[in-house]
Design brief:
By secondary structure, the protein is mainly β. 8% of the residues lie in helices and 52% in strands.
């Protein structure tokens, strides 16, 4: 399942482990979420504060700053999605410094998650994002295995607006690995590798659909790629940024010479900008651009509504070769670990070539949500957002900010 669909699954299964990914959820009332967190040595910190931070406890805090501790995040997240159904995503993550003596590198993250919904979608994912040797190297790896049951509306705006859908079931697995090195000015650059395979079948249904069957229906498809990644992040806290920027560009080249059935190219560009309006107010901006060349399978095109771009749309309804989405979010911190957000944005998908982006085809979205702080050490929030798109609305939950 390499490609954009795999990124969609990663976002759904690993939302507790990565603060920059997530998947649009939807339109059902959800049960009360529960979460637990264990911040190592937190009781010692509270005791030190109770003692006024004096004596040995104060010296210990000076020798071991907060970043030297690890933090567990455990959250059984409810999911109610027009794409995947209603169910649960149990997630467990650990945020920690790769080496305690390294005060330069950002914290590393490892985690795993599952996915189970009432439309028989099932999945398992494991993830690692490690910073090493005083922010000189960055290594990431992700493995996903499962079955997704979803609807294909077809490729392009005309197919999406028609509302006709073809129920599909896709099973497979994928492994993605990256090795990056800092090359100056906080830029990380390196190689990435995809390998995996999947099989797509049509689910039985009594409804009639005019959506054309995809060409790889009932075939096992293997996809492999080599790619490049350029990344730069200047935020002080990657889990709750209040200033700085994030720039990320990836290019993946799927080729038959690597064992891939299809030969195509996938390009993704993300730019985020953060600014503090006051001590408790943050304004965040996000721009995402996606492009696909060659002859990809339908699920490797750009998928609108996945990875929180944009919230308010059923992931998978709008699919095409090119896509852009841009949004602005206001974040307000409240007492007792709570917070509020409001957001809005626009975007579009297009086939490219002679039919580019058009003003009358824009897909707007807007909404708001609440936050609850799970980790005081790393300021990791659980989020719950309600969003309205052009003709749909979604309810989404995750751990970490939407972008």
């Amino acid at each position: 399942m390499p490609g954009t669909l795999c990124q969609w699954i990663l976002g759904a299964c690993l939302s507790a482990c990565i603060s920059t990914v997530g998947v649009a959820r939807a339109q059902e009332n959800l049960p009360e979420p529960t979460a637990s967190l264990s911040d190592s040595q937190s009781s010692k910190t509270q005791q030190s504060q109770a003692n006024g931070g004096s004596g040995t406890d104060r010296n210990s805090e000076q020798k071991k700053p907060h970043r030297s501790r690890g933090s567990f995040v455990i959250a059984p997240l409810p999911i109610s999605s027009p794409a995947l159904g209603t169910g649960i995503i149990p997630v467990a993550g650990y945020i920690f410094p790769f080496r305690r003596g390294d005060t330069v590198s950002p914290p590393s993250v490892v985690g795993m998650a599952g996915l189970a919904t009432n439309n028989d979608s099932r999945g398992f994912a494991a993830y690692a994002d490690l910073y090493m040797k005083e922010k000189t190297y960055r290594v990431t790896a992700a493995y996903v295995r499962g079955t997704l049951n979803y609807d294909l509306y077809g490729v392009g705006l005309i197919a999406a607006n028609a509302g006709q859908k073809l129920p599909l079931s896709q099973s497979g697995q994928v492994l993605r690995a990256e090795a990056l090195r800092r090359v100056g000015w906080d830029f990380f650059f390196g190689l990435r590798f995809w390998t995996g395979g999947s099989e797509v079948i049509k689910r039985p249904t009594s409804d009639t659909s005019t959506v054309t069957d995809p060409p790889d229906l009932r075939l096992h498809t293997t996809l492999s790629a080599l790619g490049l990644r350029l990344n730069r992040e200047t935020t002080a806290n990657r889990f709750y940024p209040t200033n700085g920027t994030l720039l990320d560009f990836t290019s993946d080249f799927f080729s038959q010479s690597l064992g891939s059935k299809y030969t195509f190219q996938a390009y993704r560009f993300t730019f985020n900008k953060y600014g503090s309006l006051s001590e408790k107010q943050v304004l965040a901006y996000n721009l995402f651009v996606c492009g696909t060349g060659g002859t990809p399978p339908f699920y490797a095109n750009c998928i609108y509504g996945a990875n929180n771009e944009l919230r308010g749309y059923t992931a998978g309804r709008y699919i095409d070769r090119y896509m852009f989405a841009t949004q602005l979010e206001y974040r307000l911190s409240l007492p007792k670990r709570f917070g509020l957000v409001g957001f809005g944005g626009i975007g579009e998908v297009a086939p490219g070539a002679s039919q580019g982006f058009r003003a009358n085809h824009l897909l707007p979205a807007g909404g708001g949500g609440v936050r609850f702080q799970l980790s005081k050490i790393y300021r990791v929030n659980m989020r719950a957002d309600f969003a309205r798109g052009k003709d749909t609305w979604t309810w989404s939950m995750g751990v970490g900010e939407a972008f």
